[in-house]
Amino acid sequence: GYFASYLGHINLKIGESVPYNIYLQKGYDLNIFITYSNITYNGYVTLISNNSYFSIRVINGFGSIYLPMGYYTINASAMNEEYGMNVEYYTNYTINLTGSKTINIKMVRNTIHDIKMVDLSPTLTGKVGENLTYVITVKNSGNIPENVTFESTGPWNVSFSQKNMEIYPGESRILKVNVT
Questions:
Q1: Which of 15, 135, 141, 150 pairs with 161 at a CA distance of 20 to 30 A?
Q2: Of 53, 55, 66, which Cα lies nearest the Cα of 8?
C-alpha cells in the first residue's frame, strides 16, 4: 500500500504570507533496522534527498517513515566503548525507494591501525662482533588488537626478545633488540 506524502521545506518570515502549492505524491513505507557491533542502535538517522534532509528517531534499532519515490542516502553514527576507548561506527547507505520496503543496516566499524615504536636506548657504538642491545617501546595507539611480527633484513645479525607480539589498544610493550 501507499499513503500520500510530501518531501520539501518552506521558508517563511514571521508575519509573511506567501502562496505555496504543495503536491502530494504516493508515499511508501520505509522501515529501517540498524545495528552496530551486535548492538541495536538508538538515536537519530539522517536521510538526504535532493539537497533536503531530515531525521527520524530510531528506537531499539527500528525506525519508520513514509516517503515519496526517489534516491535517499541514510547516515548514522554511534560510539561504542571497546578496550577502554570509544570506537566509532557509521553508515552511509543509499537506496532507491520504488515501493514499501524494510532494510537492515549494519554500521561499519571505523578501525584505526596505529603501531608506534620508540627507541629508549642511548646511541650505542660497538666493535665488530660485539653484541649491542636496544630497548624499544612498542605501543598500539589504534583501536583494535594488533599482531606484530619483528624481522630484520641486511648484513647485521639481529635477534628480538619476542618475534611476535599481540598488543591491545592503548597497551605498550618492551622489545629488546640484540645486534651483532
A1: 141
A2: 53
